[in-house]
TrEMBL record:
<feature type="region of interest" description="Disordered">
    <location>
        <begin position="427"/>
        <end position="477"/>
    </location>
</feature>
<keyword id="KW-0255">Endonuclease</keyword>
<dbReference type="GO" id="GO:0003906">
    <property type="term" value="F:DNA-(apurinic or apyrimidinic site) endonuclease activity"/>
</dbReference>
<keyword id="KW-0234">DNA repair</keyword>
<keyword id="KW-0227">DNA damage</keyword>
<dbReference type="GO" id="GO:0005634">
    <property type="term" value="C:nucleus"/>
</dbReference>
<dbReference type="InterPro" id="IPR013022">
    <property type="entry name" value="Xyl_isomerase-like_TIM-brl"/>
</dbReference>
<dbReference type="GO" id="GO:0003677">
    <property type="term" value="F:DNA binding"/>
</dbReference>
<dbReference type="GO" id="GO:0008270">
    <property type="term" value="F:zinc ion binding"/>
</dbReference>
<keyword id="KW-0378">Hydrolase</keyword>
<dbReference type="GO" id="GO:0005739">
    <property type="term" value="C:mitochondrion"/>
</dbReference>
<feature type="compositionally biased region" description="Basic and acidic residues">
    <location>
        <begin position="428"/>
        <end position="454"/>
    </location>
</feature>
<protein>
    <recommendedName>
        <fullName>Apurinic-apyrimidinic endonuclease 1</fullName>
    </recommendedName>
</protein>
<feature type="region of interest" description="Disordered">
    <location>
        <begin position="1"/>
        <end position="98"/>
    </location>
</feature>
<keyword id="KW-0479">Metal-binding</keyword>
<feature type="domain" description="Xylose isomerase-like TIM barrel">
    <location>
        <begin position="148"/>
        <end position="403"/>
    </location>
</feature>
<keyword id="KW-0862">Zinc</keyword>
Amino acid sequence: MPPRPRRSTASTTAPKRERSTSSSLSDAPPPKPKASTKAKTKTNGTDKKVKPKTALADDAKAGDDDPTVIEDEPPKKKTKTAKAKVWPPPELSPENHPPRNGYPIFELPSTSASPNGALPPHTTEKRPMLLGAHTSIAGGPAGALLRAGKAGANGLALFTKSQRKWASNPYEPEAIERFRDLMKPKEQGGLGYPPESILVHGSYLINLGNPDETKWNTSYECFKDDVYRCHQLGIKLYNWHPGSTVGACTKEESFASIAKAINRVHKEVPEVVTVIENMANAGSNIVGTAFSELASIIALVEDKSRVRVCLDTCHLFASGYDLRTEETYAETMKKFDEEVGNGYLGGMHLNDSKADLAGNKDLHENIGLGKIGLTGFRCIMRDPLMSGIPLVLETPAPEKALETGDFAIWMREIKLLYEIQGIEDEEWSNKKDEIEQRWRKERDSINPPKEKGPPKSKTAPKGKKKSKKDDSEEDED
């Protein structure tokens, strides 16, 4: 009588796995090889056979039953080596940069006004005004310097990280080294963008005027990270929007919250100068719309050598400060000196305004094509007070112009501003209209104005409550 086949011990649950007898940690001698037998399989009530489940269906393959069998290892994936990117990118290579604008250098008139808050220059060489644009850091912060060079600019602004995220990855040492190398003078192999020509713009998320402790702490950490990144890169000027009361406290309490952040960051990060930007929306919860509000914040700062103001022309105009004529420009700058002090002026953002004077709307327009007009910007370019500080364009451009490297608008505006700087007073009234018409045609060919559609119904869709955001025509930078 033939021997009865052994019943399979497999079950539908995974058996406890014993230590492999082929392991060197086993004290038991290896068993003799057994003749392989096919285990009976269970059925599920049909003719189909169900394979027994095991914790390792492959214990036999792994050598637990047969020490002479070696487990087949899965094929190893080939490690992909990232190709090193060419530096500098060919499209931004300094070899392809145009000559810098602003030459021959305009002789600024002498003035008896008190000096501005410009940082000490890193060169004794006479330079044009530090005029430039806000450039992208795509590919690393050093890319912003290359893009400024490609635009023929003498100054620039940049973000040190994403402006709409609370946190970003830290810089690689190589990124810091590249940036610092490009800041050096041309004779040392750099592009000649020293610290006094660069104005960093802070994250849009920061609100140091909010009295909520948790939200203030979150904003402060982002603020401090921005300032620390400036220090890493060797940049000295950090500009940001002071914030808002959010309707939860008085303006005076907000001033104290903002000053607390400035005083704290001055102790935690060395050298960097904090530059407060004036804001639009006078009469709202926004802080810093009036010169008196900027002065109130500065009064609470302990180390006043490390605080400055950046004046945004569109924000000034929206808040009721007129810049349109030589007389109104002079009056506005006189008020600034009286209420804040010229010594605190550390930079400017140059933007025309789509909205009217005192319209409380932050709607940027290209230089000379808005409600301020070319005369106001000519006044800025011929004012000795603006010498040695970054003058940064934040004007409209084609969609994703920064990402695609399309600098045509800003290159043209930089040339335009240096052009009108050199036109003498007696010629200006005759040339102004002609220059404006010519520039408008050029602007329209580069960035055609968007066609206005039919007026939107003021009635909110049924079931949807109309928000304040829907009513606002704000365009925050």
